[in-house]
Amino acid sequence: xxxxxxxxxxxxxxxxxxxxxxxxxxxxxxxxxxxxxxxxxxxxxxxxxxxxxxxxxxxxxxxxxxxxxxxxxxxxxxxxxxxxxxxxxxxxxxxxxxxxxxxxxxxxxxxxxxxxxxxxxxxxxxxxxxxxxxxxxxxxxxxxxxxxxxxxxxxxxxxxxxxxxxxxxxxxxxxxxxxxxxxxxxxxxxxxxxxxxxxxxxxxxxxxxxxxxxxxxxxxxxxxxxxxxxxxxxxxxxxxxxxxxxxxxxxxxxxxxxxxxxxxxxxxxxxxxxxxxxxxxxxxxxxxxxxxxxxxxxxxxxxxxxxxxxxxxxxxxxxxxxxxxxxxxxxxxxxxxxxxxxxxxxxxxxxxxxxxxxxxxxxxxx
Amino acid sequence: xxxxxxxxxxxxxxxxxxxxxxxxxxxxxxxxxxxxxxxxxxxxxxxxxxxxxxxxxxxxxxxxxxxxxxxxxxxxxxxxxxxxxxxxxxxxxxxxxxxxxxxxxxxxxxxxxxxxxxxxxxxxxxxxxxxxxxxxxxxxxxxxxxxxxxxxxxxxxxxxxxxxxxxxxxxxxxxxxxxxxxxxxxxxxxxxxxxxxxxxxxxxxxxxxxxxxxxxxxxxxxxxxxxxxxxxxxxxxxxxxxxxxxxxxxxxxxxxxxxxxxxxxxxxxxxxxxxxxxxxxxxxxxxxxxxxxxxxxxxxxxxxxxxxxxxxxxxxxxxxxxxxxxxxxxxxxxxxxxxxxxxxxxxxxxxxxxxxxxxxxxxxxx
Amino acid sequence: xxxxxxxxxxxxxxxxxxxxxxxxxxxxxxxxxxxxxxxxxxxxxxxxxxxxxxxxxxxxxxxxxxxxxxxxxxxxxxxxxxxxxxxxxxxxxxxxxxxxxxxxxxxxxxxxxxxxxxxxxxxxxxxxxxxxxxxxxxxxxxxxxxxxxxxxxxxxxxxxxxxxxxxxxxxxxxxxxxxxxxxxxxxxxxxxxxxxxxxxxxxxxxxxxxxxxxxxxxxxxxxxxxxxxxxxxxxxxxxxxxxxxxxxxxxxxxxxxxxxxxxxxxxxxxxxxxxxxxxxxxxxxxxxxxxxxxxxxxxxxxxxxxxxxxxxxxxxxxxxxxxxxxxxxxxxxxxxxxxxxxxxxxxxxxxxxxxxxxxxxxxxxx
Amino acid sequence: xxxxxxxxxxxxxxxxxxxxxxxxxxxxxxxxxxxxxxxxxxxxxxxxxxxxxxxxxxxxxxxxxxxxxxxxxxxxxxxxxxxxxxxxxxxxxxxxxxxxxxxxxxxxxxxxxxxxxxxxxxxxxxxxxxxxxxxxxxxxxxxxxxxxxxxxxxxxxxxxxxxxxxxxxxxxxxxxxxxxxxxxxxxxxxxxxxxxxxxxxxxxxxxxxxxxxxxxxxxxxxxxxxxxxxxxxxxxxxxxxxxxxxxxxxxxxxxxxxxxxxxxxxxxxxxxxxxxxxxxxxxxxxxxxxxxxxxxxxxxxxxxxxxxxxxxxxxxxxxxxxxxxxxxxxxxxxxxxxxxxxxxxxxxxxxxxxxxxxxxxxxxxx
Lengths: 366, 366, 366, 366
Description:
Chain A is built from eight helices and 18 strands. Chain A has 366 residues and is α+β, with helices and mostly antiparallel strands. Chain A has one domain (4-362): Chorismate synthase, AroC fold (4-Layer Sandwich), CATH 3.60.150.10. In chain A, the strands form six sheets. A five-stranded antiparallel sheet of chain A has the order 1-2-3-7-4, covered by helices on one side. In chain A, strands 9-8-10-16-11 form a five-stranded antiparallel sheet. In chain A, strands 5-6 form a two-stranded antiparallel ribbon. In chain A, β5 (70-71) and β6 (74-75) form a beta hairpin. In chain A, α1 (37-47) packs across α3 (130-148) and α3 crosses α8. The longest helix of chain A is centred in the C-terminal third of the chain and has 28 residues, at 335-362. Chains in contact: A-B, A-C, A-D, B-C, B-D, C-D.
């Protein structure tokens, strides 16, 4: 089931960029959760194209329709099907892509794998697929907020070579701070520079990438299922399943390898009110694959958008060398719209792990 | 099934550091593969403690016993059970750990999750669990080599702040070059410095980490199952499921976010003899979650070993602040022994994806 | 994922009797299959309410909409989402069921499990959910027919105590013979009696059940995945997952236990043109959990419809004894409409097993 | 993972009849369960060959070794690996089977599926594989007994044409009553006749089958995961995954189809002390795929043992007609030893469903 994620709280996404629509089925949602379309729409609007002048101008209302699983405003425990119709399609803009593979896109690999492909707007490989993830993620996030008091925040820490001051990495910005700018970087000065940079590269038909930080607070100790379904392993998979991602690191990450053990270890201390805390958090909130109750902290790398408006060397379906200059609407930088994707994937992983943990450790008492 | 990995070629590992033994069951192995214990032992010996003077002195022959699934030297398609008995156990060396949580180890989180734990040598969270992964990985690697001509190579590219020259990252070293030094870095001068560094930190009761590169050649285009089981997503999960890992990056990785799209894209060109190749490989051999036929290239970050011989601040089972100075045998740097783990996990992911791809795309013809 | 079935060819159904609609997502469908809405509609029409005077008069066109996964008339290997809008809803007819549990329905158990339920028409437990199964089954059946020459036939062998002559059980009726009567029994005289019986019980506000036989020919030897995913085990599960089923038997079934081994065993003989056949088929086409190339033969028991128009003793939401007389439209006998369900489930199991078999046994050559 | 069963409480069995041993890995076991080898051995002894004069004389102590997952007498939540060494092997007794397919055995289908097979004693298709199921089932049963007060009982209700009086089917016999006779039928007079019948057929080199009833009491309402993982669907699959099974029925089963709805429905009544009960139990304790709190009741058909000592017509590996007369030790009737298998499979399904139910319905509160 390559289009499903999660063992107990499971989502299955479907849909292509230029088909009738995109959607998701959420199976395993706990019953009794108050849920209405606006709960979901809020996050969809943060992902929506056309939301600012630094993202793709494709016009999509992305209005969610709830098709099942809700009765009188509450989840019933049965599958929740959600659908968004595609509206602003311009398949003609993609005619050249029918026969030419766009460099660093999925055109060639889909053709090689399946023997045929829906070339319009990238078909299934389009980031439009993530509509379903965000819709499902909104449900997961509501569960975590209501039942667990968990807060999830993602934000942009670097665009191209413009990075926030390192002190910002130690903060847990508010949603308002993140949403204050179109680039979703909570440091206003850096955000302004980032927006300028994105407009510059767009003007030259080029693109840039960047880094998003993910933070979670309120997760109890105990989530994560070693040895293979370690919490960071499932977070890594979830993030690397997003289009355009190239890397994941937890806590100290790659930089942590520059420290000695004596510098890197997180000393334990009693937590006021009982329990245990760590004095530092190089572990990123996960030890031995299991949450330790500290803030979960990770970063995700997004490559520069593959679609650029400059001519590129490529090959056609018959295997002949040719040249391609992309048309069609696209984001000069996917990172600002990916912030809500990182949050959605995080929420989905956490709800699933919370249920798995409870199943093994809370069902039976001896 | 948190202790299983893979959908069609599935491994299930079991065992603790100081229990009777460790092992693995491989389910779904193709029938007819010639397989004997030495095929597996070769890789186990590369993981074995006591193999050099920079790793833990624990003495374990790690001799594998094949318990099922082989008949007259060939796999039968039924589960292959493999077991290694634990030999050199010194549970007494871990008495202090019964009541004290070792910083940046899994002691506290296992206790928090399960309410009890086998504290001896870290129990299930010990790297000794990876014996089963390496044994299963040896089978996967043999399948890939025999049936697909696939070569997998991992090697150390950095220990602490000692990195190989960047030109080395462009090479595909031979197994002999990797195995030439105890640290498994194919650049002899850097390897010598790394070995010195490891001995230095051991002498001070400290530890270091580093980075391992993974490389695969011979993988055909088409492996990877979007949207969630993208090849890089499953590689990321597999790597982050290894103890002590903190990060994963594919191809250009985090550094790739410093490039513009026009610099980052991999142009396509006709491949001599038919097909398509890329002129550069910033994609790391995967595009849109599917292999493109180029070399697969990634890196994994390993933190400094959490076990150090210096006194550390911690908490005991009753929640009181205390101090702990580790005893017991350990690696001052896990990276050299982790090379074969990275190779094993890579092989396991690739065989599983190869079978999944064939199932969907090769079973039926229309 | 309780609403998903299949490991490689996976369906996920969603929807309630009186929600916006019902549907299914098919994940893992092989690419390149020619597929249009009429391919699916044909089977949906066989399941459709209102199709004859012995089934429920609920009026539903059940027109399928293909939402994804098809491009220019062929499957692309990506998820196929199918939806049918609900039309003829009369939620008011179910007001009494909000507070009273219908005997031998799922009302009480859904309430007990989830703490709330959509009572309208049985909500998720309605047989309306099987629309998605039939739609997905039509795809599976087309794959089997086109790529494997496999024929699947189900037919009614008993309604209440009216059974076909035993000779009929040895035949493989044509689709036309099955569809010739509203009751889908290929023996015309028995069919006429069955139809009379159904009309009789309907007239008294009562209901009846019966038995459906399933037959498949053209399945090669080798499908089935011991030890747990034996072919008959997965068939049994698929059939018992259908509403109103009470039993499953393969080949000789329960009656076979009345024979001695010397009477029951199926002798082997050379098959003309190579291979092996059995002289009898008490095995039902499966031996040791794996198809042997003979006709697959099984039976499924369906209980009398739980909805009857006679007053029944029950309990309300507050736990008080009360009485309930069903209203709402219903089938006096579900068996005729269940024939296509049995075929659909059979097709789904076979395609999934075919792909699993090929994955393990055809991917790699040694 | 064809050799694994269960989504949260997962068992993976391995081993062949004449390999080094057989075993199982249990993943997902709740932590804190007191568990020692004798807890498991008790059930293994009920499955053991050589236990009476109506079963196979193969001598196996079947002494279980616990290899992992237990610390100081309690489960730790990590995988529990259990192993039994094979002892009384006589591979030479099976030489003829290397080249000839035994009728109604799995010899031909394994050969057809995998292209090779371990012919000794049936290899993987031997009922010896069920050692692992029984060992794992003993753990599941202990969980249910300790934490839920659940009792599981299976017993023989028919051997060949010798059936217990129908009143016996309404009882819940004690374990002592079941174990009182070698045939495990709790009705002494019938049991005596059954034992005679088994000895008779053995004397003529023939074999018989029969029917086993399964009963469970103490299961709360709410277990079962519609629409596909209905409780009876998973029970049916578990039972049909046992060697030699040909049918499964729940509650009224096939006979229930002879009743009208007004006769078949189980009226609801208030339960003393709160809740709801049914006045009859034709549903077999499951409604809409979910347990309703009543006794779970089902039956399983076992065919006559395929191994008989009379000459039979068959085919050899080269496809030539030939004759085969079995040698080797075998059971003239597998049913008495299968009683504990039915109990084990029932326990495994129930624990898994209990955990799944709790995960969705008890983890989060709104």
